[in-house]
Amino acid sequence: MADALAREAAALEGIKVLELGSLVAAPYCAKLLADMGAEVVKVEPPGGDQARARGPFFKDLPDPETSALYLYLNTNKRGITLNLEMASGRALLLELLAQVDVFIEDTPPGRLEEWGLPLADLRQLYPGLIVTSITPFGRTGPYRRYRAYDINLFHGGGQGFMVRNDALGKRPPLTGGGYLAEFDGGLSAAVATLGALYHQGLTGLGQHLDCSVQEAVMALERATLTRYPNELAGSATTPLSAGSRGGRSGMSGTQRCKDGWVTIAALEEHQWQGLMRLIGAPAGSLRPTPELDELLRAWLAEHTMDEVYHGAEALSVPAGRLQTSRDLLESAQLQAREFFQSIDHPRTGALPYPTAGYRMSATPWRARRPAPLLGQHNTEVYCGWLQRSQTELARLAQAGAI
Amino acid sequence: MAAAGPLRGVRVLDFGWAWAGPLGCTLLAFLGAEVIKIEGQRRPDYSRRMSMTTGQTFDNLDQSTVFNDMNLNKQSLAVDLSDPKGVAMVKRLVGLSDVVMGNMRPGVMDKLGLRYEDLRRLKPDIIMCWSSAAGSTGPYRGHVGYAPTFALLGGISHLTRYPDSPPTLLSGSIDAASGTTFALAALLALNHRLRTGRGQLVDVSSTEAIAVFSGHAILEYALNNRVQGPLGNEDEAMAPHNVYPCQDDDTWITIAVATDQEWRALVAALGDPAWAQDPRFAAGPGRWQHRQELDRHLEAWTRQHTDYEAMALLQAAGVAAVPSFNNRELYEDPHTQARGVFTKLRHPAIGERIVMRPPWLLSDTPAAITAPAPLLGQHTAHILRDLLGLTEPAISELKAEGVVYEATLP
User: Which end of chain A is more exposed for a tag (fewer CB within 10 A), N or C?
Assistant: First the structure.
């Protein structure tokens, strides 16, 4: 079986991708393809992807080669530098695009046109090319040139509204941890890109994909955000906090227990009955009542996160316990599933990297290479893909084009 | 009729349940796949009855607006899977399909004789893509969960809180992100099959689908032996970086400044106030160190403006500033209107509804909403007749025996 797996091609074997992206959304989209075997070349300006300047850094020493954010988002890619402010740099970009199936880019709308590389021309030159444009608000509409970082997009996509709740009181609505909106934007764009890639595989035809991070974030709430025009129009806005804290009152949301925080989501009747058994409620307790709430609180106060979680799951009651990054690394479940794989990097040494939310029987996730050092593959790509000589490469470097 | 989506010709059997599974299949349907939802008449999709996220319950199985939003573009076959004839019918459909997807607890399909090994005998290149709370292997493989449990177990809740507030469970978006990952996994397998002719089994874990969003925090622990703590709305380097109150009650604007250039643009947009000339604010590290003071000054300004005014003034100067939009603002917003994010659809049992279009614009093979969610069993006769070649008398007999159920259009 193992031999059979080793012989099997990667899911995206032979697919070539050029990424012109920074920070999270576009690089994550390209990473999802690279992780499954696509040959991804990441194009960075001579100063590098902005993620290189963001921490956390190895030993807290700012270093463009040891940003955890950059390392995570750019594993399995090759990396080159290219100065697109120069005409000679833009000419090289055109040559590179001739080599690839997919171009993932996050330039502000209008920038490609300023560079003399309008999408219409690219499509005419390369009819088989898929261009995935990932921008904060999409390539059309009044906000198309608006600037936005992750915090702006999480709230701009309505998520800040969704997570408002009484526990926050008058404090500002919270932002999703890490770079949640940008991750969702990159993930969503990867879905569309793989759809277009399937069509390209059948027909040889490429196309342009306009992916808005704001819309990717809003799309996660398609059943909730549409309640305003359908059911609530004309009345004051109603934050759906009761809903977002879930189900039967008092029996969901985050609850304090003996040593931390848990949630119990006993939605279905058999789950509810399981919960009643777990906390020793009187048989036949059909509905939540203040007395049952109190009983649950008292029971939780005497039980640890592990006891609540395992006790509930043993009775098929959906439950969760607070997990930090360390808990994830130490999780028996994630370890048993080999969710982390060790990748060696010249500057940080080997580290356990999260892989993916899926296990593919024939085309498993594989670590092929660590994130590239800045310009690490210039020679390989410019001399290999584009057939430039070492002398020409040196001249380009001297002119500042790469 | 617009051009079809890129997955035209792909047939998916959807055994999805609640949110993550059905939404993943809907994304494929948006891209043009033909998705047949298999439902038991006695145990239909949970979203037909109620929604945890919105807190709604529905008396009539065909009137669930939440089910509609999560199951657009699909067909419905209502079949009794406790009857061997029903299972036999599904097996014949597998032979005509490309992908079998679902998100019931691992083991459900085994009992029906519909394991991957069984499916492969019926269709050698079949793709089976199954999603569950913790995945189908490992000590927690039988666990059950919903969005709030994935949020806590996947590590994102720990990062989404003020240091002194309870962890936030986020919302149904966590299920939807898991469903998007589910669609991604199926598409990876479809692309692989297109080039090699081979199917495979894909095992999705909703917990892991969320855990990947904390990759940088996980690496930080591995790098520095430090657990990244909750930051509230602050950033580890940017300042200002926060959510500020605006003039009207419960309205807010997010402002984030990463560079000195953006800082100067912000100061100019505020009208060069005296406080902003303070040399402590001239460079990034100083702004970050004194971020609370900076936030107080900014808040004094944002309180004098509506969220939309603040966005227009700051964006005109090149500063990343966007309101924390509520549902009304997003619906009425000139940008979402210009991009046609919300669109109208008529559902035979619900009537006219506003729904959200697919989140991508594909130039040549558009993703589109082509149909409302199906009534329970709406396409039963069509599937039995046109796909399986059953005669009308045979279909009538199966209906009479209760093996299949066909909806009557209102």
Answer: N
B72 and B200: one domain?
yes
Contact call for B227 and A152, based on CB within 8 A = no
| Closest CB from A159, A267, A320 relative to B52 | A267
For residue B207, the chain A residues in CB contact (below 8 A) are 333
B301 is a domain residue = yes
Q: Tokens 């002398």, residue?
A: A391
Which residues of B are annotated as catalytic?
175
Nearest-angstrom CA–CA distance, A187 and B333: 25
Mean pLDDT check: name the lowest of A71-85, B16-30, B53-67, B339-353: B53-67
Same domain, B254 and B313: yes
Set of chain A residues whose Cβ sits within 8 Å of the Cβ of B184 = 32, 187, 190-191, 194, 358
Of B135, B214, B233, the CB nearest to A325: B214
pLDDT averaged over every residue in chain A = 91
Query: Is the Cβ pair B218, A328 closer than 8 Å?
Result: yes
Average pLDDT for B272-296: 96
Quick check: B220 and A226 CB within 8 A? no
Judgement on whether residues B171 and B288 belong to the same structural domain of the protein: no
Terminal-to-terminal C-alpha distance of chain A: 45
Query: Domain A2-220+341-399 carries which CATH code?
Result: 3.40.50.10540
Count of the separate structural domains present in chain B: 2
User: Residue A288 — pLDDT band, cuts 50, 70, 90?
Assistant: confident
- B109 with B209, same domain: the answer is yes
Task: Give the mean model confidence (pLDDT) for residues A156-184.
Answer: 88
Q: For the residues A145-158, what does the mean pLDDT come to?
A: 98
With 90 as the cut, is the pLDDT of residue A55 above it?
A: no
Contact A207/B365 with Cβ under 8 angstroms?
yes
B209 and B350 fall within a common domain = yes
When CB atoms are compared, the residue of A55, A190, A360 closest to B202 is A360
Confirm or reject contact between B106 and chain A (CB < 8 A).
no
Residue B227 within any structural domain of the chain: no
Please name which of B328, B358, B266, B213 lies closest in space to residue A357, comparing C-alpha atoms: B213
| d(C-alpha A339, C-alpha A327), whole Å | 13
The three-state secondary structure class of B253 is strand
User: Per the domain annotation, does B219 fall within a domain?
Assistant: no
Q: Does A284 touch chain B (CB under 8 A)?
A: no
Read off the pLDDT band of B57 (50, 70, 90).
Answer: confident
Tell whether B278 and B387 lie within a shared domain: no
- Could you tell me the residue ranges of all domains in chain A? 2-220+341-399, 246-326
Tell me whether A386 touches chain B (CB under 8 Å).
no
Q: What is the average pLDDT across B164-171?
A: 88
Q: How many contiguous H segments (helices) and E segments (strands) does chain A have?
A: 19, 12
* CA of B379 vs chain A CAs: smallest distance (Å): 24
Contact B353 A318 (CB under 8 A): no
Residue B25 sits in which domain range? 11-213+340-405
pLDDT (tens digit per residue) in B219-246? 999 999 999 889 999 999 999 999 999 9
**Statement to judge: residues B62 and B155 lie in one domain:** yes
| CATH class of the A246-326 domain in this structure | alpha beta
DSSP codes of every residue in A63-131: -TT-BHHHHHHTTTEEEEE--TTSHHHHHHHHHHHTT-SEEEE-PPTTHHHHTT--HHHHHHH-TT-EE
Cα–Cα distance list, A96 to A90, A132, B156 (Å): 10, 16, 38
Give the gap in angstroms from C-alpha A219 to the nearest C-alpha of chain B. Answer: 6
Contact of B369 with chain A, judged by CB distance below 8 Å, is answered with no
Do B320 and B249 share a structural domain? yes
